């Protein structure tokens, strides 16, 4: 639980914006929030030690609109940690986050309010995910239709399987029980949504839209050692689900999710192996060994556990040998 430093008058929504070198997109992001038809909100912006003009843009908006509050961090702490700083000052009944390069759809907060009124037992209200970017047309992701509802356990499992996105407004007490997962600098934010869904009495889907900007400069598109954070985030997810006593179906879905990520990431690192230094090679090995050791193969679906392409093998040295053998066999028996 994080300390509550909010104080002051309560509002309906607290919108958290973690900012790091987002100057080219920041004005559009803030405008999309400020122009909502619902004005009973607090916008908490945390500048995570940006080196561009982000802080000056934030200061400009704060001087213009009292709903915008700016917090400056002296050292870069990562997105989840920055959001938790904002969370400690949130005074909204409902909390949602918007990335500094993304947009909140027109009337998104009004749509969330409508869904809250229709489903008063809901603890999380999920937004529609719309992807956009300079290189592609706007694309609405297939997902749950507006006014669809889930139990907390159903929503958690759906989110692990990527059948339900993690863009939502949640009651503030959920965030106080489970703040943003800062186990890794990137990739661990999805863990927070899955646990919030698990802890919810009901999860409802809104017609409101969240516009997610896709661009190659994103940390989630580069391939470097930061990809190892995937493994740390997956270990954290497993630990959190166990702590909050998730059911067997959810733990099975989690283990399959972690194992598929493990194998896929291993194949990616093997592909780029020559681009890393000897010191990085050891760091990569250590990360994979730790993740493999933390696995629970008994939770994997039987069909996956014994599939040649996904066969669970431990220790890591034997796993590597098996993957090399499998790769060699695939080359030999490749169809002409």
Number of helices: 12
The stretches of 5 or more residues where confidence is low (pLDDT under 50) are none
Which band does the percent of strand residues land in? 15-25%
- Please state the CA-atom Rg, rounded to the nearest Å: 21 Å
Helical/strand content category: alpha/beta
Question: Your description of this structure?
Answer:
This protein has 336 residues and is α/β, with parallel strands linked by helices. The chain is built from twelve helices and ten strands. Strands 1, 2, 3, 4, 5, 6, 7, 8, 9 and 10 form a ten-stranded mixed β-sheet that branches. Strand 1, helix 1 (23-34) and strand 2 form a beta-alpha-beta unit. One of its GO terms (molecular function) is hexosyltransferase activity. Residues 14-133 form the Glycosyltransferase 2-like domain. This is Glycosyltransferase family 2 protein.
In short:
With 336 residues, this protein is α/β, with parallel strands linked by helices. The protein has helices spanning 23-34, 54-64, 79-87, 108-118, 152-160, 172-177, 189-199, 229-243, 248-271, 278-294, 302-305, 316-332; strands at residues 11-19, 41-47, 68-72, 92-97, 103-104, 124-133, 136-140, 149-150, 168-171, 203-213.
Task: Please name the defining characteristics of this protein.
globular; 12 helices; ten-stranded mixed beta sheet; single chain; 336 residues
Break the fold down into its secondary structure elements and pairings:
Blueprint: E1 11-19, H1 23-34, E2 41-47, H2 54-64, E3 68-72, H3 79-87, E4 92-97, E5 103-104, H4 108-118, E6 124-133, E7 136-140, E8 149-150, H5 152-160, E9 168-171, H6 172-177, H7 189-199, E10 203-213, H8 229-243, H9 248-271, H10 278-294, H11 302-305, H12 316-332
Parallel strand pairs: 1-2, 1-4, 2-3, 6-10
Antiparallel strand pairs: 4-9, 5-10, 6-7, 6-9, 8-10
């Amino acid at each position: 639980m994080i300390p509550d430093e909010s104080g002051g008058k309560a509002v309906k929504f607290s919108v958290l914006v973690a900012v790091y070198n987002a100057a080219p997109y920041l004005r559009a992001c803030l405008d999309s929030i400020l122009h909502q038809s619902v004005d009973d909100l607090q916008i908490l912006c945390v500048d995570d030690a940006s080196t561009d003009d982000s802080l000056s843009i934030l200061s400009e908006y704060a001087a213009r609109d009292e709903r915008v509050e700016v917090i400056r961090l002296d050292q870069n702490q990562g997105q989840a940690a920055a959001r938790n700083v904002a969370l400690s000052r949130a005074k909204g009944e409902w909390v949602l986050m918007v990335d500094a390069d993304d947009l909140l759809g027109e009337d998104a907060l009004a749509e969330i309010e409508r869904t809250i009124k229709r489903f008063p037992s809901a603890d999380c209200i999920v937004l529609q995910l719309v992807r956009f970017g300079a290189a592609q047309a706007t694309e609405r992701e297939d997902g749950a239709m507006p006014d669809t509802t889930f139990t907390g356990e159903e929503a958690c499992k759906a989110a692990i399987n990527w059948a339900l996105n993690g863009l939502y407004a949640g009651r503030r007490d959920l965030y106080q029980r489970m703040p943003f997962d800062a186990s890794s600098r990137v990739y661990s934010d999805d863990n927070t949504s899955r646990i919030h869904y698990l802890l919810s009495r009901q999860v409802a889907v809104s017609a409101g839209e969240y516009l997610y900007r896709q661009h190659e400069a994103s940390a989630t598109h580069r391939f470097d050692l930061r990809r190892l954070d995937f493994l740390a985030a997956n270990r954290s997810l497993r630990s959190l689900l166990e702590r909050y006593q998730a059911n067997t179906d959810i733990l099975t879905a989690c283990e399959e999710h972690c194992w598929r990520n493990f194998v896929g990431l291993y194949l990616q690192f093997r592909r780029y192996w020559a681009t890393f230094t000897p010191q990085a090679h050891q760091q990569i090995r250590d990360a994979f060994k730790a993740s493999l050791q933390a696995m629970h193969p008994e939770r994997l679906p039987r069909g996956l556990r014994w599939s040649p392409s996904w066969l669970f093998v431990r220790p890591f040295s034997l796993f590597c040998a098996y993957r090399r053998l499998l790769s060699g066999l695939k080359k030999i028996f490749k169809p002409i």
